[in-house]
From TrEMBL:
Main localization, broad class: endoplasmic reticulum
GO molecular function, one term: monoacylglycerol lipase activity
The protein's name in its UniProt record: Mesoderm specific transcript
Gene source species: Oreochromis niloticus (Nile tilapia)
The keyword Transmembrane is assigned to this record: yes
Length: 332
């Protein structure tokens, strides 16, 4: 009887562990949008790119200015990353524009699909054309994954490619520009390289795993609130975005393969450049990353934020980020 009780207890434990895993695997419905996310979504619009819906925001701001700024977000989040600096930017720029890349945020997340940095650059060019800004000089601000998209846009612009943007300036932040100083997280490596594990891992990724992973790339004193973590997770889960993470993560391999093209664009351009850097970033560690950047990109100016700011400077230190950016914009 004792043995049977032990067996029963064991099976109950197994059941309690398996039920949530199976439930997640079979799709717990995505979380509801918070009021803040609903407001962001409600203020946005959609345009069509090769049959896919792309979400973007376009705010008319400062009168008497003709300046346009376009914001390119990072992985695995969305345009909502710019929410804390949005209003101050509208007070300085005539138009403030941000989009959710294909596979991110409120945009379509097709699967299967070969996601690439090249395609995302084409999405940005298509948005600029859609908004009638093809001949307008634009200021790009980018973060993380967006930095690499920005480098492809820079390459096309400097090469006079058809459909290119006319860049007035480029400000990068905490992106893995150099494969040699880039340290992706363990889950990213597993998703990017293990074809048989990836579909299981993407389905089993839950809020707890997500929160731990994102928390590790924020500084100890600038952690997101529970509501902010939840908003990031909601944006990821929208349209089953967790199921395309492995496809999107191929960008890490693309950075390695196209290093000469993208780093070359950075080192040879005459477009005014700035780098805003949170030095506590485990993905692009200090001082190796910034030393290499300053050595290779000698025309760029650099702002290193407070020592406790990590991988998401625009969310961790919005005031420091804005001050650095406005100083840069007023310098040329």
């Amino acid at each position: 009887v004792v043995r049977n009780d032990k067996m029963l207890e064991w099976w109950i434990h197994v059941g309690l562990i398996c039920i949530p895993l199976v439930a997640v695997y079979l799709h717990i419905p995505p979380p509801q949008l918070s009021t803040a996310l609903q407001k962001w979504h409600g203020a946005g619009k959609v345009f069509h790119f090769r049959g896919f819906k792309i979400f973007y925001r376009d705010s008319l701001g400062a009168l008497g200015s003709s300046d346009v700024i376009i914001l390119l977000h990072g992985f695995p989040t969305s345009s909502y990353d710019w929410s804390k600096i949005w209003d101050p930017l509208t007070q300085r720029f005539h138009r403030v524009i941000a989009l959710d890349f294909l596979g991110f945020g409120f945009s379509d997340k097709p699967r299967p699909h070969k996601y690439s940095i090249f395609e995302q650059a084409s999405v940005v060019e298509a948005l600029v054309a859609h908004l009638g800004l093809s001949n307008q000089r634009v200021n790009l601000v980018s973060h993380d994954y967006g930095d690499t998209v920005a480098l492809e846009l820079l390459y096309r612009s400097d090469q006079n490619r058809t459909g290119r943007l006319t860049l007035n300036s480029l400000c990068l932040s905490n992106g893995g520009l150099f494969p040699e100083t880039h340290h992706p997280r363990l889950l990213q490596m597993l998703l990017k390289d293990s074809s048989f594990l990836a579909p299981i891992l993407t389905r089993l990724t839950n809020f707890v795993i997500f929160q731990k992973g994102i928390g590790e790339v924020f500084g100890p004193y600038t952690q997101p609130t529970d509501a902010e973590f939840w908003d990031m997770w909601t944006g990821l889960r929208y349209n089953d975005g967790n199921l395309v993470l492995d496809s999107i993560l191929q960008y890490i391999n693309q950075r390695l393969k196209h290093r000469e093209r993208w780093v070359g664009a950075l080192t040879s351009t005459y477009v005014p450049l700035h780098m805003i850097y949170g030095p506590l970033d485990p993905v692009n560690p200090h001082p190796q990353f910034i030393r290499l950047y300053q050595k290779l990109v000698q025309r760029s100016t650099v702002t290193i934020l407070d020592e406790h700011i990590s991988h998401y400077p625009q969310l961790e230190d919005p005031t420091g980020f804005l001050n650095a950016y406005f100083n840069f914009i007023h310098s040329f």
